[in-house]
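Inverse folding, one chain.
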């Protein structure tokens, strides 16, 4: 094989990436996407600064093992709620995909959100699409280096602010600010600040569409969630073909042309660089920019809008299309049921947890008065936001008593650990091992009662 053939083979297998410069576009779907970006970015950057009763409303306090989310406090034993919420998020993704394709990718995915911000910064500094392409092709000059350097400096600063905000969800952001200003930032905060900043800068500034095309698994399995009744962005080939240029006002039908004027604007506005006229492709992220620009062209040409639009495969084929279908009903039912159950469980959960550990050094002790003693360690967790007194009780055996007779004070969010001795008269023991119940009762009238099972060990021949 000659070197020429080798080069030809290599070039066919590996395609060099060409930078995509998406064209700016205006329209309904662009406005909806910008509204979504504004809301999501506003929540991300503002939530850490909002506090209620001096408590940050969203804080994942890992050292204290407490998660604060909009007034709710979650503990390690509440991990089941996180699992259920993730299941709800999965069903939501399935539902929206079955309804209208990749709505998540086009309007809410973090990659899309931050890439749009970086593209906006790039346009403000380097200009329009044509100006950016011209600048990239130009030879190095002071102006080019100045523009490129300015863009990357702003990118880096914005990425650092993004990383700082991310760490602010795990370390109280006011304490984090003080630590940074005093150059006293801890090693883990430093690592995650720069790691998340670097990830934002690289993904949104450099990789961009490559994350969607090569790194994101969602594009690969979305097809299994679509059917012929799913709303997807489609090009009406029956109306648009054959495509070709023409002047405004002429009867294109007489020339054997379709409605598409082959302006390629739908390709220029696509953030992944695909041609929607080639049919639905896994690279399409559903941003609908091609719909807005095509409708604008159709309006200027005095043609009906909708050459590129949200539609279903059945509708394109002239078949009836249904929004409500079995899979949609199943997704909605499961989502509502799980989410309702999670909210109800959170609102009605006990505000106290009790854990009892036996003393493993001795099974039991015989006291001078003849009673049998077992030793335990109790751990009481007050998951409420205020201090509470609890009455401690042991039951399950006639005449059973404990060394704790006074109410237990447990501070808000505190884990109280205390030793307790349990006494039983030998005549009350029917077997060497008996079931007993440890219980707590809140004295302030809140829903804070709980109990746990235990074992009382006595002599083999009671």
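Residues assigned per position:
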């Amino acid at each position: 094989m000659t070197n020429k053939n080798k080069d030809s083979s290599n070039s066919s297998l590996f395609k060099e990436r060409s930078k995509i410069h998406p064209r700016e576009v205006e329209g309904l779907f662009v406005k909806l996407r910008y509204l979504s970006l504004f809301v999501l970015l506003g929540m991300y950057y503002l939530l850490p600064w909002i506090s209620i009763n001096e408590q940050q409303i969203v804080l994942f306090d890992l050292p204290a093992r407490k998660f604060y989310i909009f007034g709710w406090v979650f503990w390690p034993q509440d991990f089941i709620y996180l699992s259920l919420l993730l299941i709800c998020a999965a069903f939501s993704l399935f539902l929206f995909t079955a309804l209208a394709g990749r709505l998540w990718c086009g309007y809410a995915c973090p990659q899309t959100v931050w890439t749009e911000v970086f593209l906006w910064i790039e346009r403000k500094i380097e200009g329009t699409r044509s100006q950016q392409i011209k600048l990239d092709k130009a030879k190095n000059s002071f102006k080019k280096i100045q523009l490129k350097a300015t863009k990357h400096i702003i990118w880096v600063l914005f990425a650092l602010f993004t990383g700082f905000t991310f760490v602010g969800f795990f370390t109280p952001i006011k304490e984090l600010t003080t630590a940074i200003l005093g150059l006293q930032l801890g090693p883990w905060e430093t690592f995650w600040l720069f790691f998340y900043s670097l990830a934002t800068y690289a993904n949104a500034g450099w990789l961009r569409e490559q994350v969607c095309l090569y790194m994101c698994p969602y594009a690969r399995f979305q097809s299994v969630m679509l059917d012929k009744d799913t709303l997807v962005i489609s090009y009406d080939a029956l109306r648009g073909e054959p495509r070709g240029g023409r002047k405004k006002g002429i009867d294109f039908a007489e020339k054997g042309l379709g409605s598409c004027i082959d302006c390629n604007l739908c390709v220029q506005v696509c953030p992944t660089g695909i041609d929607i006229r080639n049919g639905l492709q896994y690279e399409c992220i559903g941003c609908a920019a091609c719909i807005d620009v095509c409708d604008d062209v159709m309006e200027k040409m005095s043609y009906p809008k909708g050459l590129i639009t949200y539609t279903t495969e059945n509708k394109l084929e002239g078949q009836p299309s249904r929004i409500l279908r079995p899979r949609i009903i199943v997704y909605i039912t499961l989502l509502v049921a799980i989410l309702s159950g999670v909210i109800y469980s959170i609102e009605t959960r006990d505000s106290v947890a009790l854990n009892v550990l036996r003393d493993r050094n001795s099974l039991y002790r015989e006291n001078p008065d003849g009673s049998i003693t077992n030793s335990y360690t109790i751990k009481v967790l007050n998951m409420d936001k205020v201090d509470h007194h609890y009455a401690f009780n042991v039951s399950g055996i006639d005449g059973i008593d404990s060394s704790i007779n006074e109410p237990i004070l447990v501070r808000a969010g505190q884990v109280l650990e205390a030793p307790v001795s349990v006494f039983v008269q030998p005549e009350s023991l029917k077997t060497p091992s008996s079931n007993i119940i440890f219980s707590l009762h809140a004295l302030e009238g809140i829903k804070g009662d709980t109990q746990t099972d235990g074992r009382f060990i006595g002599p083999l021949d009671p």
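Confidence is low (pLDDT under 50) at residues 1-12. The first helix runs from residue 3 to 13.
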